[in-house]
Amino acid sequence: MKKISFVLVFLLFFTAEAGAGYYVNWRITPVLNTVHIISIGKVGKVFPVVDGDFLYIGSKDGRFYKIDWRKRDVVWKVKLGASIESCAVCFNNDVFVGDNSGALYCIDKTSGKIKWKKQFDFPVLGKLNIYKNKIFLCTEDNSVWCVLPDSGEILFGFRKPYEMISVRGVCSPAFDGDSMYVGFNDGYVYKVDLSTGKEEWGTFIGKKGRFFDVDGVISVSRDVVFAASCNGWTVALNKKNGDIIWKRNISSYAGVVATPVFSVVPAKNGEVVALDLDSGEKVWSLKVSRKPVCAPVLITHDIIYVLTQEGRIVAIDKDGKVINTKRLDGGFDGGFSIAGSKLFTISEKGKIFVIGE
User: Fold this and answer.
1) Which domains does the chain have, with CATH numbers?
2) 242-283, pLDDT tens digit by residue?
3) pTM of the predicted model, to two decimals?
4) Bridge partners (DSSP) listed for residue 309
5) pLDDT tens digit string along 50-74?
6) What SS3 string covers 20-38?
7) How far apart are the first and last CA of the chain?
8) What does the alpha-carbon distance between residue 159 and residue 156 come to, in Å, rounded to a whole number?
């Protein structure tokens, strides 16, 4: 195995509301002290969003919760119109979330009162994002929408033909300058101009057949876009024109997280794989599960945190060695949120955990 060191260069995402899969350059203890906060019932591929002492998350029964994670108590809950399989985002005094009826809600963080509702034609899935004071959300029909947070007014929608037979999910887009990089269930990664909502390029990264969705995290580092297909390739793409710099025969439901030195892919075969950024050469690989790893990884300085469908959290060092592992109750599909030195996650059974207490 090739051994390397992380370089403290940048933050891919830096806010406490960042979630799912990302890289931050501060340390979190790998001791994995874990506390069960509360249970809310079955959930989809989601994670709790952290805002100070509070978590925001929705469940499959259509209830959306504000939880005081220190007191381990529900502050308020509101019943929305359908099952919730999107991850919320906080902005100013509001929290935004979508449901399977296609509704996007703006909810007052203090009172839980719904301030406005915007209706789309297909379910709102995946992680909502705030970028340059605008909301970006994905709907199941291969669409991404840019919405004003104060009114719900749609600034633009970027849409592609919808594959009826696919892996049900949506991509977690990456933002860089005036551009967005997003994948759809047609197997393509697209670059979208945020000032016009128009496509700049599209590159196919799937394989022939079906289920070549690009449903995971997309990362941007060193002017390169890193992405993976559920049935296809893990690739490095030229940010300017979408040309493939390198590709590797690694399929992933969870996508790619890029550090300053290598990219990390939770693979469909149950491995976690580190690839050199420049060449795509395998730095190391580690088998962590008998099932596909569906939750994106979190990388904090020099520790990689992985969640498995068997219900384990695994801490791995920069050389691909397991530092610690702990079994929790239920499988995991949705990834982490981070606030300070603590991680937050939720099992498919709806049990919320804080790691680092």
Assistant:
1) 19-355 (2.130.10.10)
2) 999 999 999 999 999 998 889 999 999 999 999 999 999 999
3) 0.91
4) none
5) 999 999 999 999 999 999 999 999 9
6) ECEEECCCCCCCCCEEEEE
7) 33
8) 10
